[in-house]
Amino acid sequence: NIIFDDLSFQIYQQQMYLDKLEYENLKRDLRSAVKNGEFKLYYQPKIKINDNQNKIGGVEALIRWEHPTLGLVSPQRFIKIAEESSLIREIGDWVIEEAFKQLSNWQNKYDSDLSISVNLSPLELYDKNKSARIKNLSQKYKIRRELIEFEITENALLDNRSDTIKTLNELKNLDFSIALDDFGSGYSSLSYLSRLPIDTLKIDKSFIAKLADSRNIILIDSIINLSHKMNLKVIAEGVENSEQLEIMKKLNCDEIQGYYFYKALPVDQFEKILEENYNY
Ligand code: C2E
Ligand code: CA
Ligand code: CA
Ligand code: CA
């Protein structure tokens, strides 16, 4: 028994060592990833379901890292590392510029109202110059700001920092939209809905995965009614099958995002869908 425990401890230590090594390696490689052009944005379509036409209203930009030796690394892994090392500022600015460039491209190419949502991490909101830089970029690329939505998560708001809310208000005053992402996944507080300048509420995919539970349906029904009374748009993420879609339609959800329609796509594949299926 003692020998066994000793061995499992060694294995545990080895694993810790490997995790730490991997962490350090990723962190090192992240530093050069922006410069080396290893990031790409993928675009996941959002489908408008409230008018029964099922059109694409916009997309969420989702970052992808093509690591030279490891291949595609999930943002779940590297965004956290970037946040811990403040590299998130550089990466976040790159994401915004890339998304603006893409929107201006689509504005010229399609003459459409296609919108783009961009994820902002909490650290980016603490940055006092963030909204000024975003404003400059929006002028550089001549984009219609009302077509850009920034998605923030509840964690960004937890510590109640005034600089977070200040940045959000500045963005809002510039005509950008704000969405509260992953709603219901963490320490959701209904008071956010009245205290923050938000336009959209994004119901977390964990809720959508548990629609078989009737209590969950009641909860979502109430959230949607409440949101609509407050003039917020409601979008559900993680819709994977037609049952979930039908329930969300009945509950008057405005937009749907999920594998049932599309996963996040590279820009050329997304444009092909626009042109072939939606007469763009
Ligand atoms: P998120 O903002 O909640 O984005 C939604 C995630 O759910 C995406 O994962 C998307 O691909 C995935 N997803 C979409 N539809 C479905 C579905 O039907 N079922 C399931 N199970 N998943 C679905 P992804 O792209 O791996 O991104 C993970 C997280 O990484 C994002 O969660 C976001 O928090 C973060 N992230 C991604 N791109 C960026 C970025 O540019 N900046 C920042 N700060 N964070 C980002
Ligand atoms: Ca998001
Ligand atoms: Ca989300
Ligand atoms: Ca999430």
From TrEMBL:
Q: Where is the EAL domain?
A: 23-278
- Which one of the record's GO molecular function terms can you name? cyclic-guanylate-specific phosphodiesterase activity
This protein's superkingdom? Bacteria
* Record's keyword terms, sorted: Membrane, Transmembrane, Transmembrane helix
UniProt-recorded name of the protein = Diguanylate cyclase (GGDEF) domain-containing protein
Q: Which residues of the full protein are shown?
A: 237 to 516 of 516
